[in-house]
User: Fold these one by one.
Assistant:
Number 1:
Amino acid sequence: MQKSKVTKTPDKAEEKNAETEKRIPKCPQLLRGMKDILPESQKHWNYVRKIVEELAEDYTYERIDTPILEETSLFARSVGENTDIVEKEMFSFEDKGGKKVSLRPENTAGIARAYIEHGMLDRPQPVRFFYWGPFFRYDRPQAGRYRQFNQFGFEAIGDSNPIIDAQLIVMCQSLYQTIGIPVVTQINSVGCRECRREYEQLLTDYLSSRKKFLCEDCKRRLTKNTLRILDCKEKDCKEILADAPHIVDHLDEECKAHFVKVLEYLDEADITYQLNPFLVRGLDYYTKTTFEIWPEKEEGSQSALGGGGRYDDLVEVLGGRPTPACGFAGGIERLIISMREKEIVIPPPEPPDVFVAQLGESAKKKALRLVEDLRQKGIRAASNFSTEGLKYQLSVAAKLKVRFSLILGQKEMLDKTILLRDMEGGSQEVVDYNKVYDELKKRMEKVKAIIKNGNNHSEE
Ligand SMILES: [Zn+2]
Ligand SMILES: [Zn+2]
């Protein structure tokens, strides 16, 4: 302090600022790659959640919630030790007991673990699950990609029939169409462990002779996870891959028959799909069918809306009995970006039934009670107690698009009455306070009947 006085003479305001800064530390900021979902964005989230839940119910997928935190080894063993997700992108740490744990980067592994741990093999198969929640990857944040992101997904565990794969694709396509986003499915087969081993050797041979043209990442992948090279977005690697052998040409009889069946079912269901021989999805647990759902005709679209496939070995790899399975996961942020781009109109929520307005302290007290009484009788009542002005309160009511308002002022308090205002047209009636519920209900029924008749007329 002494020194600063000598070297500099700060003015009073500056001095004060410095003092405040010392006392109140700056507010901590949002972590990089994280995001708040503010109330104004929630309508998109609620709408997507509603459609996912309805679809899950139609197809008898039941909700499951697994923890966000799992043992690191769960993901290392399922997603794969040599994948980008496990190698570079997991939020992993040691807990206070010294156990290695990770924030879940995806949900299939956690659900397979739950399936084994709760002995669900004894239930009628396949057991169908759906989920919705946050996932974490310590990735380089880019537009529309966050370190905490949200996904919904469907998993059908315990059935090897190709119709399960096909129906899952039909269902997911229908989800996006319902929301209003035309989509196309890309599909491939990565075979089983046996045919993949053979193909991996073929691909390694092909790429080894061209190794010097590959990007640095792919050079490394060549010895550890060759299939991942098929996913590479680098131009040079893509050029080399153009002539690479395709895995679908090297499937054994069983895997080929499975793939052909899936495509037949999709044809039958009139599903538009494109064969993509390079679609391997970059996770170790996939077998046979892999697929991704892309927005149709979206030029330069960088990422799929979602993807999935079969994972017939996963339950066994994690220590359960051999159990075939198939699943899909969709990104919610990615979907909402598409909805905004397409300017999809979300149906507005039903307005409250009534707005309770008040004027004066004693009316305020009574109104507080009235709102609660109405709510308990099944009437959705809105209010705004933070302002005194009646005009302002009624403008809030208009904004909420409520049909009726109840107004309680000093005069009404004395007369034990209340004003019932029809917001359409603005007519007002004085009603006995003790009969407010009956009077309101009567008018609500009347409006409902008019709306119903009106609809009937238009149908004729
Ligand atoms: Zn095979
Ligand atoms: Zn590459």
Note: Confidence is low (pLDDT under 50) at residues 1-10.
Number 2:
Amino acid sequence: MSDTTNLRIPGPTSLPQSVREAGSRQMVNHRGPEFKALLGRVTAGLQRGFRTTDDVLILTASGTGALEACIVNFLSPGDPVLAVSIGEFGERFAAIARAFGADVTKLDVEPGRAAEPTAVAEALQAMATAGRAPRAVLLTHNETSTGVTNPLASIAAAVHETAPDALLIVDGISGLGALPFETDGWGLDVVATGSQKSWMVPPGLAMVSVSERAWAASETATMPRYYFDLRAARTSADKGETPWTPAVGICFALDAALEAIEAEGYEAIFARHAAVGAATRAGLAAMGFELFADPAHASDTVTSVRMPPGADWTAFSRELRSRGLVVAGAQGRLAGSVFRIGHLGDVQVDDILRALETIEAGSLALGIPVTRGVAVEAARAAAAAAGRQLVGSGAV
Ligand SMILES: Cc1ncc(COP(=O)(O)O)c(C=O)c1O
């Protein structure tokens, strides 16, 4: 893959130059003063990004490892849990809880739609009535498989009102750092994210915040845990270390990424993602593609698009790749019928305009009937209408 490839998948995302350089630095002693200072810096930066004063722990793992940590540290086998699933990653969260023996009730939402706070409240009430008051609610902030962002603030409020004792455990992997998010403000107990998404860092680190209430739960939780025991991570973090050898190079990269993120500022980052999301959706719709996600909850980090009737995903992705654009297919039930465009992390509206031009040319080359010459203008207008035209700002 060349440096000029337009990598438009929902993670791993492309890396700013400063992050790439930082990641190639010489190693340091992971139990020495340089690493201690680094860990302190990135932890404080992440707390600002999560908008929390809770502990944020850094694990050497992919996002799924963080999801496992979110389960095994706070629950016991047999604990009733409500898993709100709006797509493949919601399914995964539920499957992990089940694998460790939780008594999981699923609230399944039709793919492409967000969960409704009232439906979550009703499911919680039904569990309580059945004598299985939930110990925790598992939620996905941004469902990467369908390109849908849940109205997390409203859902969290509904959970607090209906089941005040339930822990709110959130997969924030593909939204946190790009979309407005308030760990403390929304009363979220445990939140997970992954380095390879909005954070513009290679895959390999996962970050988890833990509230005081969740720490208390971890003292009585009996699910088996060792590598992902967050109490060990907290004890080590207090000494400026991690319990096991950390991915030191990725910590260097994260340090540089957080510096770039704070230089741009979270408000500007959220605005930039709103602009690229709007541009992507408008450009594709203008060409004639059918967007998959409910427009009211379409994600500003990933757009899901139906494959046009008769078009073959493998041939389509190969054609785009030959023209320098890499997009993602879909998983599970949607494989072959939906494709996805990632627009998170180090992305500008210009990158989206280029992607749209490539999709138009590639589609026409394959005989997919798309409307010519309208996508870029529609995308520009949508980004501008979002009041956030940041083309070429070079902010990151
Ligand atoms: C919402 C969400 N949850 C979980 C995961 C799993 O993360 P990983 O692939 O890093 O294990 C992903 C990865 O795409 C994701 O987008």
Note: The pocket of pyridoxal-5'-phosphate is lined by residues 11, 62-64, 89, 140, 144, 171, 173-174, 194 (CB under 6 Å).
